[in-house]
């Protein structure tokens, strides 16, 4: 749910000097600090029929960040005190689009992560690919989940330093904490003047003028009113720009002081990207508004009304988020940088996407035109059994009962009919195994449509990695081609951005 | 009944033939029978002009319950066989079992297909058995009757002699724990199971429609006493279902006998089936027969020997049949490769290609519509059948 999180993080971080948007993982008090970063690219591992993995670089220019996260544990309504939790994650950010694309939790995390579970054993190590000049590193978690990266900084001399740093922070939470500028007292801080539920206080050590938080009054969990207060606080600009992490802390108040136009704009943009109508009189709705109109409306409405963002508006927007009929964005808005949100229309009553085996029918295949695309054809042929790697065999295979059966089994694994230990296990392990981002399917999954969720994850992944075919065969905007040789998509950063790893990496298939 | 380490395999003639060959056995193939009438049976022994004594080593009858009103599970076989329904004999045990008749109790459910196949192979009349020790039979040195005699192969020959004095349940255990037999069987299991089936160490199993939850019963002629036996692993012993004429002696059974024993078996099967309404049971019938290419080649040779020209229709027919056989084998090979292949990466890549086509929404709609139509048609069909 990257856009929703953008929304919340803008609100919680407004006023800080940080310019990039950082996703927050919950609605109240969570603070994230990047404590180490270096230029690095991702790599994709595809499982080959011969039992090995082929690891290829993703050509996008990016950065790996080690991010320290701290905040209150999500409070239960019964508790009168909250404790802090601290966790650590790595994030891969795309330098071009300035967004965080992947999250890799490496230490206890109270909520979801890229791969569904938390774990405490993680290492970051250089990989010997057998070729000099390769600067490939492996993030391994719990001995099973593996992500490869390649160093992109032209200067290789700091690789070791970065590597050591990553491991040090993973191994030593206090180090990470102090790097984040946070003082943690015994890992559990309870601060409250009135005894009512409060968010834990973490006082930035370098701050000069932050005011201690007063209590928020009787907050009902991490709820809408908390959220609203945060928004109000953020938009009112009460937080001064201090470096390092801060909590938003604002006395409760029902109306909004003057909102900064820029912040409202940003808010409006995000809501618009979500396909929701503009703020201000918003009702949860599924229709997608044309981009331009909404932004204008938003800005106009809120500024003239003196920034009248009400709780109802926000609740409406948030509710709309959860239940909006997602709309296919990519084809209709060519200029938006990201199509916004889930792009598979949910099924009418009867739930979920179509059984995946339906896609292998000849009318669907013909309509898609993929057999006319030499790129698709060659990728598919690669994955056929030895001795059947021809175009004719491809057609036959697509029609074969074996492929239909595999798709059926994939469908039941997603829907959780198989003998898994927990119902959601199928979806998560499939997503993990194919290196997809579960956030892309989170909405559909929450609505009980795992097939749709899976298709959304695939679609978004393809958008990011290979790009969606346009009707005119114009591939210039195609960034992030896997394993490409040429330097396209560059912004003049300098050619020699570190050697990239390539070729077969001998990994045991687990 | 455990399933340790045995996966299910598809009940398909191509799979079974390859399985048999993977044991090292030769001159056998598996053919599916579409009907139980006399013509169908004769076509096995007289498959082409000029050949009327093709070997049929045994029949395998597969059936499974369909309707929800059944008592499913391991009792199916007992329920169907029931009280020896149809007036068949009682299972023979101990000394009553004719000498030389191989019968094994079923120990592992997933191994039932292999077990039934072994029941036929190890009882095949006059098969060539390779023996260890002083009696070594050099493989090229026997007369296999131009393919009419089944060549057991070392693995099965050894197994047979090893278990020859075992009681039936111990024989079943021996099958269950035979490394080579199990490995051959498992090589035909589905590749994606390991990934999609949850715990990779455990062969998955909840029965679905796809599944081969069949019960297998074999029917074999026993030359020693000229009787036909039903071998059902869920019963305590073999059941004599009738006798055929002219059993005994060396050499392949004559035409009359070959036809004869099959008719006896057929009658037994039909009486079993008649006890149940047809809608409740789904069944298949397979025959383990002589490799078709062997008699085709034999026929070719004999035509040449009497001077028939290549252009003669008789010659052309045989050649085209031979080609058809080779094509069938080629098709089986491709299908087996596909069965062994893990299509998961392919399937996901295929979906990705669709996603990247720029028409994904439309394709999803199409798929949904098709699925909906199928559902409607199937419901209408069910209604029409009065369910």
UniProtKB/TrEMBL annotation, chain A:
What domain of life does the native source organism fall in?
Eukaryota
Q: Where is this region: Disordered?
A: 278-308, 326-359, 468-510
Task: List cellular component terms (GO).
Answer: cytoplasm; nucleus; proteasome complex
Gene3D superfamilies given in the database record: 1.10.2020.20, Proteasomal ubiquitin receptor Rpn13/ADRM1
| This protein's UniProt keywords | Cytoplasm, Nucleus, Proteasome
Q: InterPro entries from the xrefs?
A: Rpn13/ADRM1, Rpn13/ADRM1_Pru, Rpn13/ADRM1_Pru_sf, RPN13_DEUBAD, RPN13_DEUBAD_sf
Ranges for domain Pru: 30-173
Q: One Pfam match, by short name?
A: RPN13_C
Q: Where is the composition biased (Low complexity)?
A: 291-304, 330-348
Task: Specify the protein name.
Answer: Pru domain-containing protein
TrEMBL record, chain B:
* Top-tier EC class: hydrolase
Catalysed reaction equations from the record: Thiol-dependent hydrolysis of ester, thioester, amide, peptide and isopeptide bonds formed by the C-terminal Gly of ubiquitin (a 76-residue protein attached to proteins as an intracellular targeting signal)
* Sites annotated Important for enzyme activity: 232
Q: In what residue span(s) does the UCH catalytic domain sit?
A: 5-290
> What is the active site of this protein?
112 (nucleophile), 215 (proton donor)
Name the protein family. Answer: Belongs to the peptidase C12 family.
This chain belongs to which protein, by name? ubiquitinyl hydrolase 1
Organism per entry: Stephanodiscus triporus
